[in-house]
Amino acid sequence: MNKYVSLSAADAKNIARDPMLLLAIFGPLTLAVVIRYGMRILAEWLHRTMAFDLTVYYDLILIEALLLIPLMLGVIAGFLMLDERDENLIAYFAVTPLTKSGYLLYRLSSPVLLSAVYTVFFVYFTDLVRVPVTTLLPLTLLLALQAPVVALLLVAFAANKVEGMALSKGAGITMAAPLAIYFAPEPWSWLASVLPTFWIAKAYWAGMDAWSGAFFIYSAAFAIYFLLAVWLYRCYEQRND
Fold first, then answer.
1. How many CB atoms are closer than 10 A to CB 199?
2. How many angstroms separate the CA atoms of 164 and 153, rounded?
3. Its pTM surpasses 0.85
4. What is the DSSP string of 60-126?
């Protein structure tokens, strides 16, 4: 246990020294506060001045915000791993009691747990949309899976933090998937299914609409993220062997 406490303390120092990482770790909290206290004010102002009903887009705003949380946390984990690889710390951890597998477990489990906690907190704190527990539970698990996928993407294909930054910006393209589902007519919206976030957003709306095919969407989403994580892990292993 002490080995994980020491690593956590080192992480806190690294994050505190990097404004970007600091912003990412507190970003979900800031976003939650802005949406809770600002969204309804904005909606009232738009309705009063332009007769525009923003409330019909609350579902879209919520899923976009929820997808952003594991993206930010996964980027943090990925950047920390890139730093540790540059400093040869991963090789060092491999010969300590922590072991290489223990190090990877810690690095990937942290954003998973934080993503799950932030997701539940965000939904209930913002109270933007009433999400049933039967929808929130699988949605939380799916969003938690996205965080290690993002982290593994960075360490599997980025040689340094500069390339990692470029990859993280590229991963931001996946935020377009809910927009495709919401605005593109069927079956054209399915062109966005090549983006893994499409399946999380699709699962969210399937659950909210109590669609009979929701179980299939959930199962497909879990399978896609599991396979993606396994593939990225193998790419990571090959790069670090």
1. 23
2. 9
3. yes
4. HHHHHHHHHHHHHHHHHHHHHHHHHHHTTHHHHHHTSTT-HHHHHHHHHHHHHHHHHHHHHHHHHHH
